[in-house]
Amino acid sequence: MMNVTVDDGPEGALAIRRAMAADAGALSxxxxxxxxxxxxxxxxxxxxxxYLTDAFTPEKQAAEIADGSCVCLIxxxxxxxxxxxxxxxxxxxxxxxxxxxxxxxRVELQxxxxxxxxxxxxxxxxxxxxxxxxxxxxxxxxxxLGVWERNARAIRFYVKQGxxxxxxxxxxxxxDLQTDxxxxxxxxxxx
Length: 191
Description:
Helix content: 25-40%
C-alpha cells in the first residue's frame, strides 16, 4: 500500500494513500462535488445530473477501489479529503516471443481531482507525482489521460507535468457528446 506524507503546511501534513473500501462514501461525495463545481457552469444541468447519477455512486467507487486493475489514491490534509486520482492499469500485454521481456503496460489516469479551495497549494503536483510512481510500480511505460478540450486550466497543468497532446477521444456527458484531448507522458524519472 502506498503511503506518502509530505511537508507540513499551516493546515497539517499532506498525506497521499491508497483508498480503502471504507473511503467509498466520502470519495463518492467528494468526486461528485468537484466534478459539478468544475463542469456545471459550462454544461446543461440535465446532462450533468445524468452523468453524476451514474459516475460517482458509493457502489461504483467501492467497485473501483476493489478492482485489481485500478489504483485509487486519496490526498488528505489532516482529516480533510483534498484530492483524488484513479488510475486503470491495462492487462499485461502479450509479449513477442522473440523478446525476453513483456511489453510494458499502459496506464490511464481516468480521474484527477483537487478540491477548488486547495488549488495553488502544491497538492496537484504532489498527487501527480504519486500517480506517476504508481504507474511505474504497476509496470507502466506511459501514463495517458483524456481532458475536456475546453478545460484550459487542466491542460496547462498537464503540460507542466510533462504530458503532450497525442490526439482526441469522445466523452459522453449525458446526451452531449464532447471531445477530450488525449495527453500522454513517459513514467520514466524526469531529470
